Structures are given as structure tokens and as C-alpha cells.
């Protein structure tokens, strides 16, 4: 009997994404769909729409301090990823 060959490409990784409504501003315990481990997510903060809208607003009110929202942690989006394999779970966006 000959082995059956599939004409469909195989996916290298299966990543289960967490719905955005479940993400928060801090690290959280999740089970990674890629490496199947229960981990505490690693978070990185990055300027997003909230920071840029606040920058525009501050520039209109008091121009010399336009840069302040770009430095504030509370205005940044939070990216969640697996510390073991690096799979990305999603982003908690302020806006």
C-alpha cells in the first residue's frame, strides 16, 4: 500500500490567539497555543493611537509640552507575547 500524499501545504505553527477583550494592561497567565505551556505573558509597551491623539491635543493647548504623552506609560498600547516561544497573543489598545 502506498502512502497518501496531501496536496495541501502544512502549517509550521498553530497559534491560538486570545480575544482582545480578554487582554489587560499587565502580564497575565495564559496557555500558549504554540508551545502548549501555561505562562505569564511578557508585555512590551509601544506608542499607539492614544499617545498620538493626546500629543496633538497637548500641542494645541500648550505646544512646548507636546512630547509628554509619548513618554507616559498610561498612553501606550500593550503587546502580549509568550516568553517561551515568542508567539504573539495580541495587543491591548487604549483607543
UniProtKB/TrEMBL annotation:
Q: Which GO terms describe its cellular component?
A: late endosome membrane; lysosomal membrane
**What are the TM regions of this chain, as residue ranges?**
49-70
The membrane-topology field of this record reads: Peripheral membrane protein
* Compartments in which it is found: Endosome membrane; Late endosome membrane; Lysosome membrane
Q: Which domain of life is it from?
A: Eukaryota
Q: Give the LITAF domain ranges.
A: 12-94
Q: Name one Pfam family in it.
A: zf-LITAF-like
Transmembrane helix listed as a keyword: yes
The reply on keyword Transit peptide is no
The protein's matches in InterPro entries, at most eight in alphabetical order, are given as: LITAF, LITAF_fam
Molecular function via GO: zinc ion binding
Checking PANTHER family in the record gives: FI16602P1-RELATED, LIPOPOLYSACCHARIDE-INDUCED TUMOR NECROSIS FACTOR-ALPHA FACTOR
Entry similarity comment: Belongs to the CDIP1/LITAF family.
- Protein name (record): LITAF domain-containing protein
Amino acid at each position: 500500500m502506498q502512502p497518501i500524499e496531501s496536496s495541501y501545504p502544512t502549517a509550521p505553527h498553530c497559534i491560538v490567539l486570545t480575544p482582545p477583550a480578554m487582554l489587560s494592561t499587565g502580564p497575565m497567565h495564559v496557555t500558549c497555543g504554540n508551545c502548549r505551556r501555561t505562562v505569564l505573558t511578557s508585555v512590551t509597551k509601544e506608542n499607539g493611537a492614544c499617545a498620538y491623539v493626546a500629543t496633538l491635543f497637548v500641542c494645541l493647548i500648550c505646544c512646548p509640552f507636546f512630547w509628554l504623552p509619548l513618554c507616559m506609560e498610561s498612553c501606550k498600547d500593550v503587546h502580549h507575547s509568550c516568553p517561551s516561544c515568542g508567539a504573539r497573543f495580541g495587543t491591548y489598545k487604549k483607543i
